[in-house]
Amino acid sequence: xxxxxxxxxxxxxxxxxxxxxxxxxxxxxxxxxxxxxxxxxxxxxxxxxxxxxxxxxxxxxxxxxxxxxxxxxxxxxxxxxxxxxxxxxxxxxxxxxxxxxxxxxxxxxxxxxxxxxxxxxxxxxxxxx
Amino acid sequence: xxxxxxxxxxxxxxxxxxxxxxxxxxxxxxxxxxxxxxxxxxxxxxxxxxxxxxxxxxxxxxxxxxxxxxxxxxxxxxxxxxxxxxxxxxxxxxxxxxxxxxxxxxxxxxxxxxxxxxxxxxxxxxxxxxxxxxxxxxxxxxxxxx
Lengths: 129, 146
Prior knowledge:
heterodimer; A: mainly beta; 4-stranded antiparallel β-sheet; 10 strands; B: 5-stranded mixed β-sheet; 7 helices; 5 strands; 21% strand; elongated
């Protein structure tokens, strides 16, 4: 089994709390620090995500905002606009629906932030029904 | 800033107005203020061998991805509209799917490129309809060919 542990923390007004939950599957797929230089449009990155099998997902761009498009840079299936340092995350307990709606074979990455960006992602998947 | 000016006046023996002018040309006032020797000050101040970076200006723009792609290919080229060199675009995509941000343009220097482009023609491309040759109007014919 493979797992992805997510932790959430909030600290404000004198109140501090943190929460954690582990999501399990057969495999954790990673994007482990893909560098996207500044002023790059549609840098292609091959991945394989079976959206219906995803149990937990987190993607974050460090250093600069990034536009992440799936499967096609011109007519993408889905688009994630990631601010620098602010993850997008989803899991089977999320109250909203997953922004990735179609299986992903390639990501097209556009960096117009003015700085180099580094992309990290985790997807824990369990294809078994 | 004042510390840097005082440091220049003390160590280089120039007047206050000259020191102020030197600081204006150097972005590193903090380093000058901390400099312990004349050599350290001279290393920071712009000289012919160590010129000050060219001043940059920014232009707020909103671009489609196709326009962004075109613009990113013009880095380091001379913008014919402003007479400045296009350095980079810095911004991010927003909910309207456009990339909003600033175009950074720098003054021309002796090392400026010879290649040029027009920022305005990327931002405001002429419509294809305007470029298309006028279509010939078909003459109306009646059923018997008259």
